[in-house]
Amino acid sequence: MRVILALTAVFFVLGMLQKAPCWNEDWSNGEERYAKMCYSDMPYLYTGRGFAELNWPYSDDEQVRERYERVMEYPVGISYFAWGAAWVTHAVHGFPDTVARGMMSVDDLFRDPDVIEERTDYVAISALLLAFATLLAAWFLAGTHRRRPWDAALFAVSPVLVVNGLINWDLLAVTMVAGALWAWSRDKPVLTGVMIGLGTATKLYPLFLLGGILVICWRRREWWKFASVTVVAALVWLVTNAPAMVSGWDEWKVFWTFNSERGADLGSLWLVLNQAGASFTPDQINMASWIFFAGWCLMVLVLGLAAPENPRLAQLGFLIVAGFLLVNKVYSPQYVLWLLPLAVLARPRWRDQLIWQAGELLYFASVWWYLGGFLAPGSGDDAGFYWIAIIVRILCELYLITVVVRDILWPHHDVVRRTEPPEPEPRAGGTRRPEFSGV
Predict the structure, then answer these.
(1) How far apart are CA 144 and CA 345, in angstroms?
(2) 341 in a domain, yes or no?
(3) Which residue of 216, 405, 424, 429 has the fewest CB atoms within a 10 Å radius of its CB?
(4) If pLDDT is split at 50, 70 and 90, which confidence band does 421 have?
(5) What pLDDT, in 10s, does the model give residues 60-106?
(6) Separation in Å, CA 412 to CA 25, 145, 318, 438
């Protein structure tokens, strides 16, 4: 465990160093952040969402909303974390006069030397806090398969963790997903529900783990366990969201309305189709995406029930989340982190992980060069190479999906089952306690 945590720390520091070009420029150079691929949302949202004045993200105060029309477009877990990191930043700087800042325009705040210094420190403080979350995720993953702790090394030294870890705050949800996998492996349904509830309050996708738990509980005839996880997750989600709901209901709803109203965006197949000449409205994309995802979930359900042995939660969770991302209207580069803890436990083989992550690294470079205009052809048309990068990324993801499906249908290919005892099926008329956790 100490070795895995040390590896995680070293590679997280490499991720911080990868952001050094933007750090050295105080996150002010628009071209540098794309040319050297060091972009992060954190410094820009520090000023653009009112954290430089310590505004509560879900404030419904008229003056605040008039001054900052854009509300945090993320679930509450990320907003709470970003706000808390802002308080730490202000404490480090001796709590600057926020009243005086309120007299300045927001554009002036972006140019103010003190605020520029603060936002640089804000990224550093956020990075340190996310480092602790990442270490906790590695600890969870190393303890999930008791006989295979080294599978967590695939997470610790992951190239995509290095380059994507500090783009946004997604590592918070990654930690909750890793915690849910660990809790499920320890046969703790209540704690699993807590982790899924907290994860869903941070990013929507941890909710999809309930689909994998449904399949496993269906096969075991342990409906009470599925009900326990679901009810606890719902209650934890509600309690976590309550402060935001009470303080600003309309502001809390922004996450849901923002995502439903946005059109085809970066990284998605919808963007490729739109730029290639097809035209889809946000409503059409929403409808088509949810129909596809519902069908995908049905196929995962059938696959899980038809498998000769109980599939593992990491396998089922990976398939469900991957299906969601394949047709999502936006597929940001950091979304690969959603799959990472599930992927390394679903298929803990270096070859398969490197093939999948190679496509992600190609896309990582391409999206920044695309945004910087470096891929634009001389004719002024859309950047065809960016389309290629999106398609290659999808193909590499489909490769890993195919391998995981094969492991479910033919369990002798699953390397985890070679070292973990098999999952017993329930007997007629009752169940017996499983020897294998199904993670």
Answers:
(1) 9
(2) yes
(3) 429
(4) low
(5) 999 999 999 889 999 999 999 999 999 999 999 999 999 999 899 99
(6) 52, 17, 19, 15
Give the rounded percent of residues in the chain with a pLDDT score beyond 90. Answer: 85
Report the C-alpha gap between 302 and 240 in whole angstroms: 33
Write out the two tokens for 146: 């008791």
Domain assignment of residue 434, yes or no: no
First to last CA, the chain: 19
For residue 376, give the H/E element and its range: none
Is pTM beyond 0.70 here? yes
C-beta separation of 176 from 240 below 8 A:
no
In 3-state terms the chain splits into helix, strand, coil percentages (rounded to 5) of: 70, 0, 30
Dihedral of CA atoms 323, 329, 334, 337 in degrees, nearest 10, equals: -20
Domain carrying residue 31:
2-418
CA distance 271 to 288: 14
CA atoms within 13 A on the CB side of 19: 26
| Domain annotation covers residue 439 | no
Residue 217 confidence (pLDDT) above 70: yes
Reference 439, options 320, 315, 323, 354; nearest CA is 315
Residue appearing with tokens 């808390």: 84
- DSSP secondary structure letters along 203-264: -SGGGGHHHHHHHHHHHHT-HHHHHHHHHHHHHHHHHHHHHHHHH-HHHHTHHHHHHHH--S
Residue 436, domain member (yes or no): no
Residue with tokens 């854009």: 70
Q: How many domains does the chain have?
A: 1
The pLDDT score that the predictor gives to residue 430 is 42
Give the residue-averaged pLDDT of 116-138: 97
The answer to whether the CB of 71 falls within 8 A of the CB of 254 is yes
